[in-house]
Amino acid sequence: MLMCDYFGPSKSDGIAAEDEYPVGWHPHRGFDICTYLIEGIGRHADSLGNREEFTAPGMQWCSVGSGIEHAEGGGTPAGQNTTGFQIWINVPADRKMDAPRYGTVPADRLPVVKLPEGVLARVLAGPLSDVTGPFQTVQAVSMVHYELPAGAQVDHEVGLDLDNAMVFAFRGDVEVVAAGQRIPELHVARFDAGDKERRRITLKAGASGAGLMLFAGKALRQPIAWRGPIVMNTQEELASTFMELRSGKFPPVRTPFDYRRLSAFPADHPARA
Q: How far is the first Cα of the chain from the last one, in angstroms, to the nearest whole number?
């Protein structure tokens, strides 16, 4: 994982106009993105011609590949909160220039697993129990949002094909039972899952309960060249990408119409419905 940005709660000023987005148009290349909301209404537009909304708890994801431009936000009604995460996942060097892909997952399509002691698990990516998360990542990952009542305990088994895990306690604190240590609120703990005999992470919520994001993946062990919204492997690849941006050749895959103006979309496009 490259980044997990936890944002909110923030009060909305109101729903934005059809071509206006609080997070304005910007480019991405070379990784996978998931925007997961636990409060509010997500809103997204991109250079592939996608324009969609989703209700929390739900998500929007992009495997940006060779490049997209997108804009987001502005879907939550005035006075209501927006809270969520934007998560960036690195991809192997030979997949960074894949054709871009996109998906929206509203609340009713996000798998929820009910576990003992009242624990709920929302599965964003990878398998858990008998479900698989809908985030279609290039690199194999596991992403689960756990909600634990006060004093509740959960066991998470890291997949045998993964060798790293992290837990972010975004609300409340939890005890790592095997270690007898606590993860305070708004802190992250990293686990070495390389030992195939030590795949289980057992977490116990504190007195106020806890909201957790658990991430697991496999280290790529490849160089990272990262500048702003572009993540490649070499400085030369970064320079080439920014040259494309300056020359107007980015993104290389895009709609034949002006994707920034809804009025320019074809009359039969789903976004015009």
A: 36
